[in-house]
Structure formats: C-alpha cells, structure tokens
TrEMBL record:
Keyword match Chaperone: no
Gene: proC
Family: Belongs to the pyrroline-5-carboxylate reductase family.
Reaction equation(s) it catalyzes: L-proline + NAD(+) = (S)-1-pyrroline-5-carboxylate + NADH + 2 H(+); L-proline + NADP(+) = (S)-1-pyrroline-5-carboxylate + NADPH + 2 H(+)
Native source organism of the sequence: Prauserella isguenensis
Name under which the protein is recorded: Pyrroline-5-carboxylate reductase
Residue ranges of domain Pyrroline-5-carboxylate reductase catalytic N-terminal in the record: 2-95
Main location class: cytoplasm
EC number: 1.5.1.2
Length: 268
C-alpha cells in the first residue's frame, strides 16, 4: 500500500518518520511539499520521494492531507481533477469537516478525518478517527491499522473532532508549556538549567508512565504525592489561587472554538 502525505510540515513529517520507524518501506511512501528546500531536506533525512500532487494522486492508495486548514482551497481545486476511483483521502486538518472534502472532490470519494498529534514522531501518537459518509468499514480499518503503527487510535463520531483537536491534538503543546514553566521554576530556585530540565522531564515521563500503566485515577496519584503538612500542598494552594484549573478549562474550550471557526471558514 502506498501512502502519500500532501503537505510535509510538522505533522506530515511526524507521520512519515513514525511510519518509517514502524517498519514501512520508504518506497511505499511519498510526499508533496510546496517549498523545494523543505522537500530536499526531507528526502535527505528519510529517503522518501517528494513528488507533484498529480503523481501522488496517481500512485498512492491513501492520500493524507496535512496542509494548514487555511491552505486547503487550492489543494482541493488541484485534487478534484486528479482523484482516481481507488483513492482514499485522509484529512488531518484541524476543524475541516469530511463534508467539505466530499463536496469538493469527485462524487463518492471516501474521506476519513483524523486528528493525530506530534508524538507520532516517536510512535506515541493519539489519533482520533472519524469516517465520512462514503468511507467503508474496510477503509476505516486500513486507516486504523496505519495509525496504530505510530501510536494509539480511537474511532469517534465526527461531531467530537473539534473537542478532540483541542484536547489531544493541541494537548502536547500544553504539556510542553508546563514543562517549560517548571524548568523556569528550577532556574528561579538556582538550579542549573540542564539539571532542572533533567529533573522535570523525568518527572513528566514518570508521571505519564504511572498514568498509563498504573490504572489509578489522576486524583489518587496526585494525593499520593501530597503528604499531610508537607511541601506539595503548599504548591497546590498556589495553583488553586492562580486559577490554573480554570485556565486549562478556558484554554481547551478556546482551542475547541478555534477548531469550529476554522471549519466555518470553508462553509458554503
Ligand atoms: N502540528 C500539529 O501538532 C498538528 C497539526 N495538525 C494539522 O496538520 C496540518 C498541518 O499542520 P502543521 O504540520 O503543523 O503545519 P505546517 O505549516 O508545519 O505544514 C504544512 C505544510 O504543507 C505545505 N503545503 C501547503 N500547501 C501545500 C500544497 N498545496 N502542496 C504541497 N504542500 C503544501 C507547507 O509548505 C507546509 O510545509 C494542519 O491542518 C493542522 O491542523 C493536526 C494535528 C496536530
Ligand atoms: O494548532 C493547530 O491548529 C494544530 C491542530 C492541533 C494541533 N496543532
């Protein structure tokens, strides 16, 4: 099966790299990229061929659209004249509904909407998959299999995709932001930056592993760290005082709203 990534930026590269690490052959992967320097860089790094959209449409069984939502229109115009009857279109674009692709591509084109995240680069993606109205169960399974090789996959109704985008699509950015802020806290306390980074990254990895493998609720895990009359509760009081929980609720709600807005920009 040949997979072509249309738009090889951050997420397109994460997909190519993740698929190669998972054992996919470079000869079964293609990408398109409008910046030639970027295309050359990727071919050097991964040995995957950069091609024109027409060639990708001709050779690939699965076309993965990974351009920014704001760049979708010209790509749809181009693809509309190129899509063959056997092509399956997978969109990773935040906010864009499958109905947009179905409306603009030849009648009956199967479309599957996916929201992945950048941990795909290290085989630890969280991808949520929603089939459009022409996608068959078999095509859905093909996409689930493909994405399972680069992380975890859930199938969800498309109506939940804007929330998913805000939560697991953008989620890694919020964890990186917290880690960045905690490294700064280490600096404030006089630790060397490299030491602060090592301490916090390992704390994050350890916490992530406990969340994933221990099966305990996050509240229990947090309570286990919070000794009576100890240090952690002082920190928690400050987090509560500064409204960190409400800030996260607002942040994720706002990201969801932006996803909805990106989709609305392409309504008829
Ligand atoms: N970065 C992330 O963490 C995630 C991004 N996404 C989605 O993936 C898509 C891409 O996001 P990023 O990779 O962050 O953006 P990006 O800007 O890094 O990548 C987009 C790439 O597409 C190329 N491009 C644009 N139009 C093109 C065309 N017509 N033909 C060929 N190449 C073209 C651009 O030159 C650029 O390299 C967006 O729709 C975004 O919503 C989804 C999940 C996570
Ligand atoms: O920021 C964005 O729009 C993309 C979608 C989810 C993560 N990054």
């Amino acid at each position: 099966m040949t997979v072509a990534v249309l738009g090889a930026g951050k997420i397109g590269e994460a997909l190519l790299s993740g698929l190669l690490d998972a054992g996919h052959d470079a000869g079964d992967l293609l990408f398109t990229e409008r910046h030639p320097e970027r295309a050359a860089e990727l071919t050097d790094r991964y040995g995957v061929a950069g091609v024109e959209v027409a060639e990708a449409a001709k050779r690939a069984d699965v076309l993965v659209v990974a351009v920014k939502p704001q760049d979708i229109e010209p790509l749809l115009d181009e693809l509309a004249g190129l899509i063959g009857p056997g092509s399956l279109v997978v969109s990773m674009c935040a906010g864009l509904p499958t109905s947009l692709f179905e409306r603009r591509l030849p009648a009956g084109t199967p479309v599957i909407r996916v929201m992945p995240n950048t941990p795909m680069l290290v085989g630890a993606a969280m991808s949520a998959v929603s089939p459009g109205k022409h996608a068959t169960d078999e095509q859905l399974q093909t996409v689930e299999r493909l994405l399972s090789s680069v992380g975890k996959v859930v199938v969800l109704p498309e109506s939940q995709q804007d929330a998913v985008t805000a939560l697991s699509g953008s989620g890694p950015a919020y964890f990186f932001y917290l880690v960045e802020a905690m490294i700064d806290a280490g600096i404030l306390l006089g630790l060397p930056r490299a030491v602060a980074q090592q301490l916090i990254v390992q704390a994050a990895v350890g916490a992530g592993t406990m969340l994933e493998e221990g099966g305990e609720h996050p509240v229990m895990l947090r309570e286990n760290v919070t000794s009576p009359g100890g240090t952690t509760i002082n920190g928690i009081r400050e987090l509560e005082k500064h409204g960190v929980r409400a800030a996260l609720l607002d942040a994720i709600e706002s990201a969801r709203d932006r996803s909805v807005e990106l989709g609305k920009a392409h309504e008829e």
